[in-house]
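Let's practice the habit of predicting before peeking. Look at the sequence and jot down your guess about where helices and strands might fall. Then scroll down.
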Amino acid sequence: MDMNYVVKGASQAQGSSGSEYKHQACENESIVRKAIERKSLVPRLIYLSIQSASTSQKETVECSGTINDTKNEEFRFLLEKYASSLSLSFDDAVKLTYEISIGQSSFKDFGTDMVVDCLNFAVFLNAWNLNFTHPLLPHQDGVNIISWNMLENLIKICISEQLTCTRPVPNSPGSQLPILVQLITESLTWHGLIIQSYIKSMFPSGKKKKKSEPGDRSNFRHLQVVRSSIDWLCDEIQEVHKWLEDEINRPEDSRLDFWLSQLNPERRSVSVLRILDDFAASSHEELGERISGALRLWSSADVMRKIIRSQSSLLSRFQHICDSKLEMLESLKRLV
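Done guessing? Here is the structure:
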């Protein structure tokens, strides 16, 4: 066999592999850069969203329904950059978000790891649409009902899908739980802040006006939309709260039995535990007193119990977060 041919072939294969590696590295770097850019936009978008909500009901708003042009341009520009970080144009992002809310598309079109980012975009878009309009989200009698409904449907879809993927915890520890936490602590929290600002703009004194007052009658349609959105948020957070309660109250022994039932040689993920169990069952003085002593004390059941208790502790902390969100929303309900 011609050795030059062999060397050349090996060199080409190595070059091809190196080229693929570089291409993959570039793709990963691009994804990371976009994620960083997206995160960097969030603080300003939250600020502009709250400001948009606080000015949407003030008498200083122009008849056309727009606020300061500079703020409008900045808000739109940042939304465009956010959409771009999702590899979409602003109009395409609005269209896809709207289609997901009415069941014509799926979050898979954004990407499985983009659920939170998609909902965040919808939250900011709804805030922007309080003062400005998009052709897909027109105002009706001065109220952007379509935009609010779109966001409410998205929230319901997001929470429902994540709860389905996440349960039960023992079967898939971790799983989609981080995404569920993000939805509550980011997307729903920011929407709650926007609603809070919106209500304050309607009732500057912080107290609900009497029904006989003209100002309250003029805000009636807005109040209906806000009440509905608060109810949606409460319902979805309560769904998460109930799921957490069920998981926390699941008997520890039954969860332990499940984990121990998974310890079979065919499962690669638990092979380390099997090896440690085997070592613990026999004497290995050649490993030294310290290591052999630790092995004698090894118990897979004890380790599993610690994992289960850590899970319960984590879920309890998440439940407390949900409690605080519900308390805040209940306080807003009393205002409207």
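How did you do? The two ends are 86 Å apart (CA to CA).
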